[in-house]
Amino acid sequence: MTLRPLICAVALFGCASGDPSAPVTPPAFARDARVVASNTFSPNDTTISTSEGAPYGFCDFWAQGPAVCSKLRKWGYGPTRVIQTYICLSGDEVSINACSRQPAVTQPLSERMLRDMDARIAAYRGTGVRLLVRFTYNFGPIGPGAMDAPIDVIARHIDQVAPILLHHRDLIFALEAGYIGTWGEWHNSTNGNDTATAHTIVLDKEREHFGGLFPILVRDAGELAQFTGDLTPRRDFGLHDDFYASSATDAGTWQPCNLPAGYCLTNYTTPQLETFGQAIARETMFAGEFAAMYSPLQQCDSLASYSHRYRVQSIGLDAPAAVAAELQSQGCLLSFYNRVGTRIELQRVTITGDPAPRGRLAVDITLVNAGFGRVIRQRPARLVFVSDKKVVAEMSADDIDLRRLDAAPQTYHLLVRLPATFPSAGPVTVAIRFSGRDPADALPLNSVDQHHRPVFDPATGYNVIATFNDSSH
Fold first, then answer.
1. What span, in angstroms and rounded, lies between the C-alpha atoms of 139 and 137?
2. How many whole angstroms separate alpha carbon 276 and alpha carbon 261?
3. Above 80 in pLDDT, residue 29?
4. pLDDT tens digits along 68-120
5. Domain that holds residue 401
6. What is the rounded distance in angstroms from the CA atom of residue 24 to the CA atom of residue 26?
7. What is the CATH number for 315?
8. The model's pTM
9. 26 and 145 share a domain?
10. What's 457's domain CATH number?
11. Can you tell me the distance from the alpha carbon of 160 to that of 378, in angstroms, rounded to the nearest whole number?
């Protein structure tokens, strides 16, 4: 890896001046440079949830808000920082349980609904939660009462809600394609929307508004292949498998022909669509939920293998009781949920050099991603030095790009020039922070130090990696 981005990022502390694109010679360190700190770390027993990727809880958009939704936990996991919310569009502020009992929708959304929708999404700001959103006109069951809307009405509604999602795009984990069919799940439409034409209208509209901002998740691999025309992943589209590991083909997720969902691709096979799904998971996002018992994929080892294959970024916490009981009996229910999404662990830190005013340090940090998923969004990294409760040095550590971190441990080498104001004596704590300005959105390292203390401090968003010049240790 190149050291140039880090060296230029710390110009405040004495980096060479001139053309920022020109190579910079890193400071040299003697082979016998003093070891300032050398620490090893162990994994936490449970995962600290993060909005980057986690099991999702379910909240009723019009009936509940952050006061309830930001505290969701189950099976020993949580509170989760990913919330799935169905937004019912069949009437102003209709609870999801009443969504299927409304008149047919034929008109644009009301201004009142749009204002309230905006306010309810905005209320999640500062909570550390991101929303997995699905728009729907019904909440089942399959039948004439589970009405969706005519495709021209759906297209108009997508245009109406787009400014709200764009304004709050940093709060959106992903958008499930939604709108069409029962539960907005793209099957059994009551308005003839189970067609390639209707699917294309919805996906084109959603890509036009949201492409590149957050993933758009399609129910079946075949539906997405029908839209794209081939089995090449597109960066804007992922999958939500609502029958995850719950049948031989996940109830149509991997079937080439699914007539109730409006597609039949005779030129593809189930293995090809499974490979397509794995490629999508590497490029964008794969999320889903358990739906039924299916022993071949719900043994601890087989479920872990399946979940690693599809890099599961989020799975519903509300697993059917029978599925949860089976995994619990095998002893892997919580450990499975702990690995859903991202789980970044700190393994080792070594700091060498001269921790003094204008001194130079080499900081080696070894990290591993022990989760099924990955870091999708770029997380700005900052290395922070604290003494007497004050920040005495802070600098970019953007060479640590967690989006590239996988199951193999990776050691990052950071070279640091300390400022002239750095303390010459007294204990100094070194921390790393992965976030923007809001500590609630900071990415935790799921490790404990040699004294079994968690390295992550949720109050500051800091992950404490070392202390030196501390005479008490």
1. 7
2. 18
3. no
4. 999 999 999 999 999 999 999 999 899 999 999 999 999 999 999 999 999 99
5. 4-46+343-468
6. 6
7. 3.20.20
8. 0.90
9. no
10. 2.60.40.10
11. 29
H helix or E strand, kind and range, residue 273: helix 270-283
Q: Which two tokens stand for residue 222?
A: 């075949």
| Residue whose pair of structure tokens reads 């440079």 in the numeric block | 33
* Residue 294 domain-assigned (yes or no): yes
- The b-or-e profile of 350-361 (16+ CB within 10 A means b, else e) is bbbbebeeebbb
d(CA 299, CA 52): 27
Neighbours of 341 (CB within 10 A): 30
352 falls within a domain: yes
Report whether 378 contacts 403 (CB < 8 A): yes
Residue 203 near residue 158, CB atoms below 8 Å: no
DSSP string of 185-246, one letter each residue: SSSS-SSS--SHHHHHHHHHHHHHHHTTTS-EEES-HHHHHHHHSSS---TTEEEEETTTTS
Residues 14 and 142 in one domain: no
Per-residue model confidence (pLDDT) at position 472 = 54
Question: Does residue 150 belong to any structural domain of this protein?
Answer: yes
**191 CB neighbour count, 10 Å cutoff:** 19
Which amino acid makes up residue 315? I
Q: What is the pLDDT of residues 378-389, one digit of tens each?
A: 889 999 999 999
Q: Contact, 149 vs 179, CB < 8 A?
A: yes
- E strands in 49-170: 56-60, 82-88, 130-136
